[in-house]
Amino acid sequence: MRNVIVGSLFGTALETYDLYLYGTAAALIFAPLFFPGQDAAVARLLSLSTFAISFISRPVGSLVLGHFGDRIGRKKLLYLTLITMGLSTAGIGFLPTYASAGFWAPLLLCVLRFIQGFAFAGEYSGAVLMLLEHAPRRKRGFYAGLNNVGPVFGFVLSSGLLLAVNAFLTRAEFYSWGWRVPFIASLLLLLIGLYVRSRVAESPVFESAAKVRTQSSRPDRAPAARLFAGYPRELLLVSGAVICHFATFYLFTVFSLSYGQRELGLSNTMVLLVVMLAICTHLVAVPFSAALSDRIGRRKAMLIGLGVIALSAFPFWFLFSTGSFFPMLLGSALLMTGYGLVYGPAPSFTGEAFGPSARFTGFAVATNIGGIIGGGTAPIVGAYLLGHYHSPYPIAAYIVATALISGICVALSRETKDADILHDR
């Protein structure tokens, strides 16, 4: 179990390092490098739009990688996603900018971002399921939730490396070549990740399901066919249940960076530091709520977190808009605590909704449909609402609306704390 925890945490940290590094760069760096000659607001919107491309590719990745994850195994699939994600991120570090390649620069950026999203669709799902399917029944929520501590390290490492490079270089040097360093560093992390993953055993639940499938006399349907035929209600409700925490997180980690820099006139260093410190609340909130879900159930734990997000949305934007470090940190920590309370039970809530023969596909598809609706569009929605209303409070109302939608979906879902995850229904 220790090897599974380390393998899942490190893999997810690496994948989210790649993912969040791009989000930070799209908010703070890429506009003048890949979209010059535009109005500042238009360039920012175009840069943030490239961030959404990852979410467009995720449903494709969910079906393709989910199929192989349910057929050839969780472990083999995780090798593939780790390599694909690491190479595409490093590739961004070698891209020419618009000044030297013209139209080809943003086009290649979009292609590599698409590949990132495709790979992440399988990586996160596989890492969670390895923990869920190795864990003892009464602690499935806790162990599956531990995977979601990994993004804390991914975000802090990517943001910290950007800050370090920025601190040692002049502005001209940073925009000339310094921004490439964190992207190329992904190659080193990839090698470490492959070693760590090699020490993890295949999921026993998958091995059991594969054995049953080979001995069955019934026609063997594709995982996607099993999913849409056997779990349509679960797919719809789980997809809706995860919309809010995706929207909340990406409004905070991507849009708020741009908002703090361009609307409040704050330095990149200050805004990134606030975001990094606030995300560290997940080190406590995620394991706590994941363990709580083993006691009171997945649904109740999720609803508590969604309630905290809704209640903290307006205070967050009020405190963040002061432009003062400690009020910004207080509001950010409050919002991220709510997010962490949802993010802890979300993996077990999602994974237990589907049977083993379609679990990888179901987890990936549901998570990434919710990711597109909630996360992929969130920075663009935030930029539009701010530009139209010239106030951050409509963005707070948007967060509350997503919390309401997700809360309804959670309330309509079945409780899975004591569900049998070894057999299909």
Could you list the spans in which at least 5 consecutive residues all have pLDDT below 50?
none
Q: Label the overall shape.
A: globular
CATH superfamily annotation: MFS general substrate transporter like domains
Radius of gyration: 21 Å
Structural class: mainly alpha
Helix percent band: over 70%
Largest sheet: none
* Assembly state (oligomeric): single chain
- CATH topology tier name: Growth Hormone, Chain: A
**Overall tally of domains:** 1
Number of strands: 0
Give the N-to-C terminal Cα separation: 27 Å
Note down, in words, how this protein is organized:
- This protein is mostly helical and 425 residues long.
- It has a single domain, classed as Up-down Bundle (Growth Hormone, Chain: A).
- Helix content is 81%, strand content 0%.
- It has helices at residues 2-28, 30-34, 40-71, 74-93, 98-101, 104-134, 140-146, 150-168, 171-178, 180-184, 186-197, 204-215, 223-230, 232-241, 243-262, 268-279, 282-296, 298-320, 325-343, 346-351, 359-376, 378-389, 393-412.
- Helix 4 runs antiparallel to helix 11, helix 15 runs antiparallel to helix 16 (268-279) and helix 16 runs parallel beside helix 19.
- The model has no long low-confidence stretch (mean pLDDT 87).
